[in-house]
Amino acid sequence: MNDLDDLIVSLRPDTEDAYQRRFESDLARAFATPRRRVSSLRLRFVAIAVPVVLASVVAAVVLALAPSNDQSVSAASLQQMLLVGTEEPVITVFLCKQDDPWPACGGNTENPTGGGTAITDQEKENVDKTLTTMPGVESLTFEDKAALYDRFRKNVLKSGGHSEMLGMVKIGDMSESFRITMKPGADWGPVIETARRMPGVANVVDQRCGSPC
After folding, report:
1. In the structure, what pLDDT confidence band is assigned to residue 14 with cuts at 50, 70 and 90?
2. What are phi and psi of 168, to 5 degrees?
3. Number of domains making up the chain
């Protein structure tokens, strides 16, 4: 584990009250920093391209305050925090967006604009058809940017309401995704590996463990 991993682990609360206190403290620190750091927060938050739950806001702030040279480690650490509170484990397939920093999209985390290209309509259709028909898949649900932003907004407001955070992240910053529900007892491995290899896919998260298992 690196310093960022240790810091994120240290933020995991023993109680909900402790979590809320740390959440408020981290937001206060983030919004007290210079504007250039706020811009860094937005870039790094959007670059992760993950489903947003309450813990994601804390993890995004931590990522901005404690940057790492290894963005893949940082992303994996953040995704583990993002899955707190997920009711039912699913496979989440995040799709490439324009200027996406994920290497699978042709991007580069060292590039300020990301540099990646968005998934095409044909690629999106291929992902849908291929994964829907794979053995063990019970259902596949497409989530557009508006749906993901709405989830993000609701979780921010649920946390106590922070207009600054809502102002930093826009609908256009979100990545589209497919959420895959597997049948009981099905083998998740082939579905995950197939999704990862498909053109137009930025990242795949196995929500049983929050990162590649």
Report:
1. very low
2. -80, -35
3. 1
